[in-house]
Each structure stands twice: as C-alpha cells, then as structure tokens.
Amino acid sequence: MRAPSPEDIARSIVAACADCEVCRFMLTDDCLFFRELYRLHDREAETGAAPSPEELRSMLDRCTYCALCGCPDIRADIIAAKSGLAARDGLPLSVRLLEDVARLGQLGATAPRLANRIMQSSPLAGVGKRLAGVHASRRLPQVPPETFTAWARRKGLHRPPSPGVARKAAYFAGCSGRYFFPEVPRALVRLLQMSGVAVYVPEQVCCGMPPFLEGDHTKALDMARANVTRLAALAAEGFDIVCSCPTCGYVLKKLIRERAYYAESYQRSVGAAPDVLKVPMADGRRAGSASVFNTLRRSIYGRILKDDGHFAAIDPLERIAVGENTWDAGEYLVEAVEGRGLRNTAMPRTRLAYFVPCHQREQGIGRPYLALMQKVPGLEIDVLDGAYECCGMGGIMGFKRDFHAHALELGAAVAAKIKTLHPDIVVTDCLSCRLQLAHMTPFTVQHPLEILAAAWA
Ligand code: SF4
Ligand code: SF4
C-alpha cells in the first residue's frame, strides 16, 4: 500500500473535523485554519468541487500551532502534511532564511549598529525584507548592542556552578530573548540570583518551533535532539530547566514529550506487565504523581498508543526527563523566589494590560506571573486570557508576506481590547506576542519579568 501523500493527509483532516464539528462552533472566529477547512468542506458538500492541492496547502499554511484546538493528533497530522509537502516540493529560500531566528540574530550581532541602520530605515530594508519573504510593512525588532549570550559569557554564566549549591537552574533563554530582547533574560537572571538560585546558561540551539511549523522536519528534529541530549544530562545532575519563552517551554515540556510514555523503554522502566501500558495520570514532576498510573490493556490500545510522533527518533526517556524537569520562569519564580520572602517595592501607580500567551495557557500552570504582579503595590492589572484569544503572530508567521494580513486579522480583537483599556504598559511573556502587540497598538510592551525585576530591585 502506498504511503499517504500530503494531500491525502490534508483530506483526512478535513474529513475527521467535518465529522466531529466541535471546532466549527468553537474556533472558526479565532482560527483561520478551521475557517478555511469548513469552507472547503461545505463547498464540496454543496457543489461537489473537491479542494485542489493548492487550496489544501493554503489551508495547512493557516495553522499557527497555537494549540488552542482540542486534538493533538489533528495538529500532528497538520505538521505531517506540511512536512510531506516540504520534503517533496522543498521549502522556499525565504522560509529557510526566516525560520533560522538564531542565525538572523547572530548575523545582526556581528555589526548591530549597521544592521539597525539598514533594517530600520534604509531602502536596503525593502530588499532584505523581500529576500526573507517579510511583509513590507512589518516592523522588525532592533538588534541590541550586546546579545544575552555575550552578556552571560561576560558574567561567567556559561560555566556550571560549583557542586553542592542548593538550587541550580539551567536557563533556556530562547532565540528571541538571546538575540533581540536581552533585557528579558537578564531580568530573570537577576531575579533568580536575588533568590539564591545558581544560574547556568548552557549551550543551546533554537527550540525548533519555527522549522517544525514550516514542516522542516529534519531541522526541527536536529534542534530538538541537540537540546534534549544536553538538557537531559543537566536534569540528571540536578538542574531545573527554566524557560522565559512560553513557546520554548511548551516545546520542551509538552510537544517533544508527546507519546514518549508509550515507548517500550519507558514501559520497562516503570515495570509494566507485558499485556498493559502504564501511563502517568498527571505531570510526573508534581510530587507523587509519577507513581500514579492509568493502566491500559495492550490488546485494545496497543495499536494506537505508540511512540510514533515527530520526535520519536529521540530517546523517549531523555524527552521525558526534559519535559518533567522544565519550568516556565513564572511558575519557577512562584516556588523559588516567593518562597524566600523577597519583598516587593511599591511602584508608582501603573495600569497594566496583561495578555496571557497561548503557549503559556497550554502549559496548564495557572497564571503565575499574574499572581506575582498582583502582589506589587501600585500595579493595577487588567487580564486578557480568554480561552480563544490569540495575538495572531504565530512566531515567525506574522512576518511572512503571505500571512501578515491574516496575523493582523487574528490579532485584531485582542488589539482592540487593549486599545479600549488604554494601559500604561502592555505586558506579555511571549516575545512574538510582544512584537505583534507593539505593531498593532501604540503602547510600550514589556515582559512580566521586567516588571517584577523593577519591583524587586
Ligand atoms: S480538531 Fe478535534 S475537536 Fe476540533 S473538529 Fe477536529 S476532530 Fe473535532
Ligand atoms: S493549533 Fe491553533 S491555528 Fe492550528 S488548527 Fe489548532 S487552533 Fe487552529
């Protein structure tokens, strides 16, 4: 039997979601993928005109992997279809340039002033944008005078702390933080050090989300493998892995770990009998939960519950070790910093509009930054965290010529709410959301870590 083509996979997604219809009612206002899926399905039902390969590709290209929809398997199929298209037809040069955020950052860091002069004002910016497939009116981030990586090296954070420290964090800062917004990771380092946590910034590469989303399977897998191998070894040495980027956190905690618990090596490690699969009932990091399992009969579930996802080529035990030991910086601060009784300094009365990013919501950790900011006297906070509220940026997707208008349409509701609130500062923990909200509203946008660092200074 021939392997399904990318178009076959896309059609099977249309059929499955048309059968189910949950996302027709829940998400067609907020997800362009489902809006297009149901449009194509309804047209075929009414006129018999099946979606063309181009229409299927365009439908797939509308998913930003916000993870707001209910089915990880459907999302995995979207990426499988995109990966099939990329493998068969290749990726345009512009996508290959844009998906490598770290390389763009490193390039800018070689001559930051020149890079800013070219990219912010000169007509050369237009040429650069065209080459990288960036929409002409999309604002580009400034290149900072010093990257976080260089700063961390200057501070000696690239060397592991001496053995015996009580609590040590391996900080996964993410490409946008390392190369474009170093003030954010610097704020976290300061907060952690103030609370007595030893900070180590290990070698790291991009979390892999941009190439994953583009269907560049090999690149995403290579990046994930490099990070997982290094971070799993650090977890084994007692490091907590901490992320200030919610997308990196989502990738390391959730995406890479998907289906790893079904692997034979994991089943052996928890002593599963040959006829059952043992699957933890909750996140294994939480106290005691690692030993509480759902027990599933292999005769019923063995054929569908397999470790066969996008990252199955990476050791499942290492993926689990990384997933279970990775913390979002907000939740880590609640435990590590607050527990040590650091005092908030009262701030001048400041009205914040806090937008909670999709990939933070998907981590199921509550609202740790909100809890911390609410304790700072002087801060008045409006929260935007509706179940389907999305800024629309989709990582690098909002930069793309063909997606720019979609990104603005998706983010319009959130931007309108923020404009109505008219805050002094917009706060969000995702640096892609930061770029989008700075593009769509006239307000200063900051990370909660910057607010907290000022309050705890
Ligand atoms: S993604 Fe899942 S819940 Fe949503 S329509 Fe498709 S099958 Fe139903
Ligand atoms: S991940 Fe987000 S963009 Fe993609 S189909 Fe689900 S809701 Fe839509």
Describe this structure in words.
- This protein folds into four domains: 6-89, no CATH class; 94-132, no CATH class; 148-256 and 325-330, no CATH class; 343-455, Rossmann fold, CATH 3.40.50.
- It is built from 24 helices and ten strands.
- The protein has helices at 6-20, 22-27, 32-47, 53-60, 72-89, 93-98, 101-110, 112-120, 124-132, 148-154, 175-179, 183-194, 209-214, 217-236, 246-255, 264-269, 298-301, 316-325, 329-336, 358-361, 368-373, 404-421, 431-440, 448-455, and strands at 168-172, 198-200, 240-243, 276-280, 293-297, 326-328, 350-355, 379-384, 425-428, 444-446.
- The strands form three sheets. It has a four-stranded parallel β-sheet with strand order 2-1-3-6, sandwiched between helices.
- Helix 23 (431-440) links the parallel strand 9 and strand 10 (444-446).
- The protein starts with 5 loop residues before the first helix and ends with a helix.
- One iron/sulfur cluster binds at residues 27, 31, 33-34, 63-69, 75.
